[in-house]
Amino acid sequence: MKTISQLLKEKGQEAWWIRPDSKVYDALKVMADKDVGALLVMDGARLVGMFSERDYARKVILKNKSSKNTTVGEIMSSEVIYIPSTIDCEQALAVMTAKHVRHLPVLDNYLLVGIVSIGDLVKAVIDNEKQVNKALSQYILEYKVAVNPITTAH
Fold first, then answer.
1. What pTM, to 2 d.p., does this model score?
2. Distance set, CA 142 to CA 84, 129, 131, 133 (Å)
3. Domains in the chain: how many in total?
């Protein structure tokens, strides 16, 4: 199974972010433009939160707030669950499942190195399973040939 570091090298380490004093409306525009479901909330180089579609739905719309007047910092999830780049994709998917999140920032020594989504991880796990299945099929085929070699009469 590939590590998060390997996954980030393949998919790229680009991560979209916004400042906590930005308006929610502006965050939604960035999310729409970049076609992402969450943004990192950064104060300089420091990760201070996550802003997701869930935050918007539950903390703005349902509370009858205005996205043009509310700041991201007021409604962001400030308890950020993150992972190191050294774990494998299956472990990261287990973290997402246990913590009920769809995006995980990747931090090494408290420095942001990227972000992975549930889609990234599911794809990586499926790709791994395909490779394992292919290898097992090849092994079985080779085993059958070794056990039952075809003999030809001369």
1. 0.83
2. 39, 20, 17, 14
3. 1
